[in-house]
Each structure stands twice: as structure tokens, then as C-alpha cells.
Specification:
The structure is a homodimer. Chain A is globular and about 60 Å long. The two termini of chain A are about 40 Å apart. The mean pLDDT of chain A is about 95. Chain A has eleven helices and 17 strands. The first copy, chain A, is about 30% helix and about 25% strand. In chain A, β2, α2 and β3 form a beta-alpha-beta unit. The first copy, chain A, has a five-stranded mixed barrel. A four-stranded mixed beta sheet of chain A has the order 12-14-16-17, covered by helices on one side. With about 350 residues, chain A is α/β, with parallel strands linked by helices. At the A-B interface, β15 and β17 of A face β15 and β17 of B.
Chain lengths: ~350, ~350
């Protein structure tokens, strides 16, 4: 493990498509959504601690989650938390992390990745990441892991890449493509040369800050009004002042799409973004009637294809005659909804009048 | 109000068809099942306190509910509780009450009635009860209130009565009929002269103890092995010893059916025994899609004819696409069941391996 390799885990999202398990006050990354015994954040930290020293892991999140993060990760020091005072999407988050690390180690090479994904092949992930670190350490390159698509999914962005290997399985990226329609997605699959964009990036501090200078200088300009604050005790107060003034934009739009020096490592790592209840349903083991049940006890009669989850581990669920439903009992909210219509859930949550249910 | 008139409220049942709201540890009579602000027991005590002095009300229940009863009825003295050490059905319960009252007041006339019924016309109920008390005080008569049937219900016992008025709207009873099949129930309705047996009885101590001597002497024999204990501080210990040895049988079978001196007062009192979730559904107001909702908040989409109840008053229920379901969220149990098949619930509860869910 290289002392100038870092991993920054983005843990500030809301996971609103996982409502009501995921709430504003306790988003998906803090939940043991797969019933593994560890939250998604804890799984992610454990996974990357095979790649970089534990002290080189940063958690970038909204300030309101500080206590939850420290409770879930007692081995991390408070100084490893980068706390955003506002939600301005991923580009400002990446710039903040780069400036923070630059002050600490100007030779830093760092990965940014989400806290709430599942990766089943941890060894393959580790070897891909080490290759990415090595390549990004030796080249002025933005390196991303790309996932071999297994179906024409319209829920992911795609990476169109050059199939000529540049060594270490690194390939030049032609372009990033936004979430396609089904016809286009099928074309990507049929043609080959496309990967899913999993939002896992590796770059040196210099490379990413140069990219901001070229493509989104307004963001780094706002954050470097008084750059001497980075790495000092005044950094947090300074960030609290300036961060909310950055532009709300994703790193994909602001940096990846315009950049010419993007490379990808095709990675067969058993990845799932667990973006929705149906993706969790797909991921988990089913009983003989295709039900997934995460509850204390159950008595199911004529139930098929349902996802049933109770936040209380000693709750009994007795149900009859439902097919393809999501049934989520979580504290002060009970959701009973057709699986096929789960895309409604995000808007349903948003439309609630009572903030405390969100 | 007559000082020798008493009302004994039977509050020892389990209400298992109201599971999971009704539990062994907290049966239906202790619940505010109609969301009136008072439990069924509290409603019943308030109702009979218009008929007899508060101090003449007895609560007959299982010993395990002592604390719940005292909490719910702070105006009652502990001496007004008759605590059964075992569940032996209603005949031993009536005999115990009669012997207890005989020691207190040998001229006592008392009503026995269930704690868990709904009576909407309280004034009519009061005037019927006063007539029943008067008749039972002046005659060697078992008097029962009979409910005019509004449909051929197969869930109730029927009273076949003589339509000749004996004064005070009191009629001779020909016979009691057990729960009939649908054809028989329809015949009762078509013929007239049949009432529903609501389990509301009035009799003098002498009349009911004579009836036990004639028809079920074994029960009073067990309870009077040392009759001098009634009315003393030793009564409870004595009852704890002898009561479990009484025969497990209902007062209907043991006393009412063989008795020749049974009379009824037809009573249009807005009665419901609230025996099942469907009877509660029928009783309560519905929204424009025929849903009954007892929850903190709701977001219902394409939901029709459902009964939805959460034990927590601040719980949000979000549901889509269900018709004619019972949805009960109660602490550690969630029930989602077709209304039409509610008769399964009693057996389902009984079959549970984990006692704490019952």
C-alpha cells in the first residue's frame, strides 16, 4: 500500500428511491440494507482498507451525518471526515477533496467512490484499483473503473471506450454517454465497447485540479478564495463559508465529459449500485416462491415475488395473496407498493407534507 | 338508581379474532378499537354508570389483567375487581360473581354483560336495563336483552321468544338457538319471533344460584366448599384454590338452555359485538373509496374497501392497489390479509410458534 494513495468515500446522498428505509436523517449508506451485519458505508470502508492505509481513507459527507459516521466507523479519526455544509452535487465535493489532499500531500493520488454500492468480488476490485492507482500515479490521467454490462440497463450512464489495451488493462475512453433509452442501450450491448459508469474514479491531485482549471474553474475559484486555509484548523469554518457558493453540478458533467485524458479499466467486480428496491430484490436470495424477506418472523400464504423488510428485527409479518409487492415497515412509515411501480416512490416521498417522514 | 342493583362486566376474554391488535397481554376490551378516545371497557363502565352506582360495578376478569384494569379505571376500588385465576368460560364466572354478591347483599339483583361490545343508543340501553332490573327484582326470572336482527347473521346465537308482552316489554323465551346455518338464519328472520343473544343477562342472586343448583350444581359445589370465605379478606386466596377446578362451560349451555324461567326484552340499542375486523369495518365511517383508516397519516392510491389500522398514532401508511384488505400494524406484528378470509386469523394466531406474538 502506497502512503500517497488515498480513497475518498462519498457518503452524503439521500438514497430517496430506498424510502422509507432510507431517510433524510439516516440515508441508505448507513443502513445494513443487505442484512450482512454491516452498513453499506462500513462495507465500503472495509473494502478499500485492503487498498490504502486506514488513515488514508476520507469520508466526504454532509455535516449533518458527522455523528452517524463517527459511530459507524470508530477506527477513523474525526480529521478523516470532510464535512460539506450544503448539498452541491459531486463536482464541488471532488474539488474540495482534491484541495484538502493537496494541502496534505501534493503528490497524492486518490480515488473517489460512492459509499452505497455493492461489490461482490472484493479481490478483483482491489487489483483493478491498484492498477488504476498505478496508472493515475504515472500519467496525467483520469482513470475510471467500467463495469461490463450484463443487460441493456437504461438506469446507468455508459462509457464508450477504445478496446486497444494501453497496458495494465487500461483503455482510452472515447466518451461518456448519459442514461440511454432501451433501443440505444441494446445497441451498446450489441456493438460492444461500452461499459457502465459506476462512479469510481482515480486521479492525482494535479490531474484533477488541472481538469477543474480547464473545465469548471468557477468551482475551484470559489473554493480557493483563501487557499491557505486548507490543511489548517480553520479549514472547516472556511469551507462552511465558501462551499455553499459553488455550482451544483455532477463531476460527470463538469469534468469527465469535457476531459480528453480519461481512461477506463474494465472491471468484472460483481457490482451493483443498489439504486432501487428492485435492484435489492434482484441481489438478494429468494425463497421458493420468489419472496425476499428481511423480518423477524414470517407467515406468508399465497405470496409470490414480494420484497418484505421490517426495520425491527423481531417483527412478525403475516400476509396473504400479494404478488410482486414491496412491503417496507420502517418505524413511523409503512409502505405497501407494487414492485413494478417503484419509480413512483421518489416523487411520493418528495410530495409528503410532513418533513419528519422523509 | 337502586342500591341493590349491580353490574358485573366480564373483561377476561382474549378477542383473538382481533389479532394482532388484540393480544393475550392486552386484549380487545382494553383497546380504543373504535378510536373514540376510550377503551371498550371504559366505554362499558361509563355506559352502566348511568344505571347503577359506580360502587356497584364489578369487573370480572383474569388476574393477569388486574393492573391494566386499575390503570384504565382509576375511579374503581380494587375491591370491585373479581379476579379469576384461570379461564373457565362464563358459567363459573357467573357463579363466582353471584356468590360474591350474595355475601355482600343477599337481595342483590345483578347484570352480567361483556366489556367489549358497542352500544350506540345508550339511553335506550339504560331504559331497557332498568326494566330488566325491575322485572328480575320482582320475579324469579332470568332476563336477557335480545337484539332485533337486521340480517340473517350466522355468527350469533338466537333467542326464540313468545311475542305476547308480559308487561314492561318483557317476553317469555321459548328457547335459545346456537349459531345457525344461513338457511336457518334466513328462516328465523322471515318467521319473526327471533332475537340475537347479546350475552346481556339480569337476575337476582337467588334466581341464578337456584339455576346453578338445578342445572350445574357441580360448579357451585366446587365454589362453595368453604362458602364462609366469600365476603372476607380470604376470598381471593380461596378463589385461587377452588376456581380452577370448576367445569369449563358457557353460561348459555350450562344455565340458559335448560332454564324454564328465561325472559327477554327486545332492545333496539345499536348493538354490535365488534367480534371481528369486518364488524369493525362495518361499524366505522369510510372514505370515498370505502377505506377505513386508523393511522397517523395516509397516502392511498387505488385502494378500495380496506381496513387500515396502525397502533402508533403517528404512523404514515403509503399503499397502492389493494382491494378489500385488512392491514394492521401493531408493534411487533404486521398483518396484511384479505378481508373475506378473516376467519383464518384466529387459527393463524393460535398456530404461531412464538408465544410473544400472540
Amino acid at each position: 500500500m502506497q502512503e500517497h494513495h488515498y480513497v475518498a468515500i462519498m457518503a452524503g446522498g439521500v438514497g430517496s428511491r430506498f424510502w422509507p428505509a432510507s431517510r433524510e436523517s439516516r440515508p441508505k449508506q448507513f443502513l445494513d440494507i443487505t442484512e450482512s451485519g454491516r452498513s453499506l458505508l462500513q462495507q465500503t470502508v472495509a473494502r478499500v482498507s485492503d487498498i490504502v492505509p486506514l488513515g488514508n481513507i476520507l469520508i466526504v459527507s454532509n455535516a449533518k451525518y458527522k455523528n452517524q459516521i463517527l459511530e459507524q466507523l470508530p477506527l477513523l479519526d474525526e480529521s478523516q471526515l470532510l464535512l460539506e455544509p450544503s448539498r452541491n452535487n459531486t463536482a464541488p465535493c471532488v474539488a474540495y477533496t482534491a484541495l484538502h489532499l493537496q494541502a496534505k500531500n501534493e503528490n497524492a493520488v486518490f480515488a473517489m467512490l460512492p459509499a452505497d454500492h455493492i461489490i461482490q468480488k472484493e479481490n478483483v476490485f482491489a487489483s483493478c484499483m491498484i492498477r488504476a492507482f498505478n496508472y493515475a500515479g504515472q500519467h496525467d490521467a483520469i482513470v475510471t473503473l467500467g463495469i461490463e454490462p450484463t443487460r441493456p440497463d437504461t438506469g446507468y450512464g455508459y462509457i464508450h471506450y477504445d478496446q486497444i489495451d494501453r497496458g495494465e488493462s487500461v483503455h482510452k475512453v472515447h466518451s461518456f454517454r448519459e442514461k440511454p433509452d432501451m433501443v440505444t442501450a441494446q445497441k451498446y450491448i450489441d456493438q460492444g465497447g461500452y461499459l457502465w459508469n459506476a462512479g469510481i474514479f482515480v486521479w492525482s491531485v494535479n490531474t484533477i485540479l488541472n481538469a477543474f482549471s480547464s473545465s469548471a474553474p468557477d468551482i475551484t475559484d470559489v473554493l480557493t478564495a483563501d487557499a491557505a486555509k486548507f490543511g489548517t484548523l480553520a479549514e472547516q469554518d472556511y469551507i462552511n463559508d465558501v462551499y455553499p457558493n459553488t455550482r451544483d453540478i455532477s463531476v460527470d458533467f463538469a469534468i469527465l465529459e469535457p476531459a480528453q485524458n480519461v481512461f477506463t479499466i474494465p472491471a468484472d467486480i460483481g457490482w451493483s449500485d443498489l439504486g432501487t428496491w428492485n435492484s435489492l430484490y434482484s441481489y438478494l436470495d429468494k425463497d421458493q416462491h420468489d419472496n425476499v424477506v428481511q423480518a423477524g418472523a414470517q407467515q406468508l400464504i399465497d405470496m409470490r415475488g414480494n420484497l418484505i423488510r421490517t426495520s425491527s428485527s423481531d417483527k412478525l409479518v403475516v400476509a396473504k395473496g400479494l404478488q410482486d409487492y414491496i412491503i417496507i415497515d420502517d418505524g413511523d412509515v409503512l409502505l405497501i407498493y407494487p414492485r413494478e411501480e417503484e419509480q413512483d416512490i421518489k416523487a411520493l416521498r418528495k410530495g409528503l407534507k410532513q418533513e419528519h417522514y422523509k
